[in-house]
Structure formats: structure tokens, C-alpha cells
Amino acid sequence: MTSKYTYCRPAFFGFELCRIGGEGSPSGMAPKPLDYDSLNENVKKVAYAVRGELYLRASELQKEGKKIIFTNVGNPHALGQKPLTFPRQVIALCQAPFLLDDPNVGLLFPADAIDRAKHYLSLTSGGLGAYSDSRGLPGIRKEIAEFIGRRDGYPSDPELIYLTDGASKGVMQILNTIIRNENDGILVPVPQYPLYSATISLYGGSLVPYYLEEEANWGLDINHIRQSVAAARMKGICVRALVIINPGNPTGQCLSEANLRELLKFCFQENIVLLADEVYQQNIYQDERPFISARKILLDMGPPISTEVQLVSFHTVSKGYWGECGQRGGYFEMTNLPAKTVDEIYKVASVSLSPNVPGQIFLGLMVNPPKPGDISYLRFAAESNAILESLKRRAHIMTDGFNSCRNVVCNFTEGAMYSFPQIRLPPKAIEAAKRAGKAPDVFYCLKLVEATGISTVPGSGFGQKEGVFHLRTTILPAEEEMPAIMDSFKKFNDEFMEQYEDYRDLASRRSRVTDAMALVLHAGNTNKNSFKTLIAADYSGVQVELTKNFEMGVSNKTSITHLKADSPLYGSSRMDYAHIELMIDFALMEVDANISSWLYLRLGYMPYLAFAEESAISCLKRTLHVLNPHLAVNTFLVGHFVTLVDIIMTCNLYLGFSLIMLKSFTSEFPHAERYFWTMVNQPNFRKADSVPSVPSQKESQTKEAVKPKEVKKEPKQEAVKPKVQEVVEEEEEASKPNPKNPLDLLPPSKMILDEWYNDENTV
Ligand SMILES: Cc1ncc(COP(=O)(O)O)c(C=O)c1O
């Protein structure tokens, strides 16, 4: 066959010859430019898990009539969040300006919405139907600069603020400006939001991952970032930018001021531009780490860092209590970029003529909402607070729900809109996934959507460490539906684990060790102190079994156990060890002592005295008020993994959480609560049936806590003991006074202990 050649694009000697026709082309034609094989390879490389295989399967199931709960995208209105009234009133008037001339407009719209619509229309050159300046309307950029100035305490320059169709477009534009070729590296947190991996692929750069530490509540470790940079440089990659997502997506953590300082110093030392994705700055669900912008810390740090480090910060109307994803309003602000670069970015923005104008007005409204005294203020404040408060509650329901599931652990969602639980998949499930040709987390998530209709995103779409599996859900489903969603997740998960967990292996491993001399603990199977030994033994790889048919006072034996000095349960340094010792005292003297006093009064082991109960409760509250802020910023009590004190603390909290502390009590200490649920769901706490599952707090809310037991003498009955009582009785048996003690036979003392106790002179 003869081949024809035509001039196609500049190459060697000015032109490259392109062949038309020839073998391999069924029509005798060369592949067309938009045939799959001839596409830009970078386009083919782009992967976007948020709308990937799981999403497609969920959509298919929906078409087949199954109810699907789409928790895969942070798209609040799609999941039923109502728009805020004031901004929609303003936009409605801007879209239909003739309404402003209607004499009845004041009957339908409040005066401040009418004024605001007129104001924004006056900033445009021809209303919403006209292109604006390619950087956005100057009047709105000025309002954004004023907002940034109020937020950070440093003035901002509207000339350095560009408006975009959502933050994504801004991120893409800046990455396009930075990436020159495949040797340009962008440091991206892993797990990451796939906008970054996708855009870096699209523009042909290299993603340089830095791993967030799940055990440290998804904190970042600057040494790991250094190592990532060093490894990338060894491969000839020039690291040019560092991305932070604060609060994190999918990980939900908020960066501390110290973290931000370290990062900025690092960027200064390494000559790296910082890209601060701050789209979730309104979504904060705890008080310990409020949102602080990277720009504020940069400017706080003073020269040379404040004048040298280049920073681009991104924000949007898609998140926060606005959730106006479909309006596509976003902006970026540039700090320390030379004027010529800013001009180049302007030039490229001009190619798309103009960001969408309604989105720009939403931005104006977001940075300049109704103020106290405005007609619409109270309504606006009530609507926005209700959304944020509900998101906060949903974050707790999700975290607690995940942590109550078998083989699932989840850090608390401190901010943003996502929950990112780790699913500890048993080897049999991983093998089954392999056989099905799926990644293990994809396999799990597909089974989940098929069984429950809950559509999530497998963790591999965000990046995760080798052999570790997650899924991402949003916390956006309606609050009233949340408990049912979590129940159905739990049912699915626990059945999945039941199906794939290999009990035969576990049993044979146990019996092998038992044959090889298992140690026997002579204690009851409801005693919190036996749990401590069993869990510590599991962590240490020592086989300990509870004796069968244990009877208190008959088959109990005294034993002393101690961990070996080099046990990892003592932490990773001598300092850790010292902290562990200190905290063990705290767990015994402050946590155990107060929970026990409260419980024993209620169970009638001590004469019920209201003041004694009040005192135990207030001491316990004081203790939890100390514990709670510590756990807001730490996953574990000491260091970054489970240590002996976590085992002791959790077992000491166990009776409190399972028997006496109602949800209304514990919700005052959300981090202590999250900690407890995280710990009791650690595999070694559950393995060997160490800690029996704790009744859900949802249930205990509806029931009454343990009622004070009447101290009056009743005829002895052989009735079945309530479970609560059994657990505690067994524990207390040893410490209860022996009824045959001769001192019991003495007449009651004349000394009134209450009076003596309340005596002012008593120290
Ligand atoms: C971290 C992060 N950055 C940026 C975006 C994009 O937001 P926008 O809708 O403004 O494009 C998202 C959206 O989910 C996000 O999670």
C-alpha cells in the first residue's frame, strides 16, 4: 500500500512528516486526533477516584431502583442542605433585576437584600450577563481583601486576589504556572484530595508524596517531608511547591500554629512555594485548634520569612455553611509573588475571558455577610449556626459509629466534611479481592454499596500506606438519617468481618501456643483488671488465657505480672516511659477512683449519700476536663502508638462508659469519648475477647443510668443479677469487707463521719 505524507507539526528541520493511511488502520486512515490512541497521554493518566468505579457502580444500582446514599462528594446541597436565605435573595434579585423596579419588591424581599443586590449590580458592567474583568470584579476583590485583612490582622491587596470558577480552577491555574516538565515536583499530602494528583498528571509534573501520620491524628511530620524531598532530589526531581490542605480532605485534621510555622520555615529554607488550600476554613468542629491561615502565620513570622516565602492561598463558596458547590465561586490570593508573575497569571486568566459572575457575587456575600443590626442578620446567623452545629454533631456520630465497628478505627473529624476510617481487612478478604481483580479497599466498598446503598470512595483514591486500607465518606447525610446509616454500615461491616476473619487460623494459632504452654490467668471474664493483662499480653505476643469456670473466692490466685523492660508498651524513649508512669497514676487515682466511687454509691456498695455522689461526679468531670484537651491533639496518651497507659486508661474508663456515664455526660468531653471508642476498637483490644463490646451510648441515652440501689434490707432472692451488678460485684468481691470480720460485729460508731468530713478545720 502506498503511503501519503503530509506536514503536521514543527519537528526536526522545521517540519515532521505525518503518515496518512497505511497498515493497521481499518479504514485506511490514520488515527484521528481525538481517537483514544492518539490522545494526550497526560489526559489518559488523570485519575479521579471521587467519581470513579464506585460512583459508577452506585449510579448503576440507582438506575436499577436501589436507594443510594451518595457520600462520595463533599456536595452539601445534593444531600439536602438548604441554601442560606439571604444570599439566594440577593442573587435572585441580581438575576432578575426587573424585580427591583416592581413596587411590590419590598413585600417579597427584605430591604437589606434589595440594597445588596443593587450594590452588586452596580459593581458589574452590564449585570450578570456580562463578562467581568478576567481577574474578577474589582469591587468584589476589594471586599475579599477587607475580609482577609480582618481575619489575619494584616491588610491585603485586591490586586493580588483573583476570582475563579471554584477553587479547583485556581489550583489548576497555579499548578499550570509552576509545572514546566516531568522533573518538576509538587509535594502533596497523602492521603490527598485527588484534584492535586489529577492536575499534576494533566500538566505532566511529578507528584512527590509526604505521608500524614494516622496515629498522630493525621498530623504532619516535617522530617518526613524532608525525607520525601531528599528522595525526590535523588531521582533528579526539582521540588517547587508544597501543598497543604487545612483542614484536611480526606483526613479532617486541623493544622496547629506550630505545624504551620515549621512548614513556612521549611519552605523558606528549601525555596519552595506554599500552596495553602483553605477551602474548609469555616468547617471546624473543635475549639482546641481553630483555623489559622497560612498567610497570618507567614506575616507573623516577620522578615526574612514573611517577605521571601511565596504563598498562594485558596478559598471557595462550595464549603463551610454555604455549600454552594454549583455556583462555582472561588478565589486565590498571592503573597510575595513578583509583579511580572502576577501579570503572566492575569494573561492566562484572560484566555478564559471571565470567571462566572454569579459565583463572584456569592464570594462577595460570603466575605461580607449580614452584620448584627441588619434586618437579615438574625435569620442568617440562625441558619448558618444550625448548619455548623449539625455538622459538628454528625462528625461525632460518624466517628463514634465507625469506632464501634469490628476492625475499624477512625480519627475524629476535627474539620472539613469527611470521615476517613481505616478498615483492617483480614487476609482472607484481601485474597478474595485479588481473585475478583479488585484492590482490597475497592472490593470492600463495592460490597458495601451493594449491600447498603452507601456510596463511599476507597482510600486508594487518595493514597494510603502500603497494606493499609481506608474509605472516605462525607459527614453530609441528613442528621436524622445518620444513626440508621451508621447502623447499616456496622451491620454490613461486622458481617463482612465475620465472613472473612479466619477463626480457624486464630484458633489453631491459639491452640498451638496453648499446647506450647499458655499462661493462665485466674480471674473473672468481666473484670477490668483481667482485661488489662489480656490486652497487654496480646500486644506482647504472650499467650494468656482466662481460667474456665472461675469462681471468686474459690479459684482465684494471686499473681504478679510485669512487662519486660524493653516492651514497646513502655513507649519509645525514657521520657515516654516517665510520662507513661505519670499517666498511669492519673488513670488510677483520678479516673478509676472517681468512676468507682460514683458507681459503688449507685449500686449500693456504699450508703447512698447525695453529696458523695456529687463530689465523685465533679471530681470525675474535673479529671475529664484535663484529659479532653490532651486528647484533642493526641490520638494516644503518650507518643504515637498504643502504650501501657492507654490499656490501663481504657479499661478504667470501661465501667464508666458501659454503665454509668450517659451520652449527655460524656458529650461534654468529645475527645475523651472519641479516644475511648478508638481504643476499644483496636484489634488487640478486641482480639482474644479481651474487652467485651461496650453497649452503644445511643442505647444508654434512652435507658436510665444505674439507679441508686435502695439500701433497705430485702428478703434474699435467688433472682438473676443484673449484668451491671455482676460485672462490678466480681471486681469488688476481693475488696469488699469480709462479713465475718470481727470489726463488723461492733456497734455503729457515734462519730458522724459526714460532719467530721465537712468540718472547716479539716484539711
Ligand atoms: C481540598 C479541596 N480543595 C478544593 C476543592 C474544590 O472546591 P471548588 O468547588 O471550589 O472547586 C475541594 C472540593 O471538594 C476540596 O476538597
From TrEMBL:
Keywords: Aminotransferase, Elongation factor, Protein biosynthesis, Pyridoxal phosphate, Transferase
UniProt feature, compositional bias: Low complexity: 736-748
Catalytic activity: glyoxylate + L-alanine = glycine + pyruvate; glycine + 2-oxoglutarate = glyoxylate + L-glutamate
Biased composition (Basic and acidic residues): 700-726
Pathway this chain belongs to: Amino-acid degradation; L-alanine degradation via transaminase pathway; pyruvate from L-alanine: step 1/1; Photosynthesis; C4 acid pathway
Cofactor section: pyridoxal 5'-phosphate
Annotated ranges, domain GST C-terminal: 573-702
Protein name per the record: Alanine aminotransferase 2
Organism for this UniProt entry: Musa balbisiana (Banana)
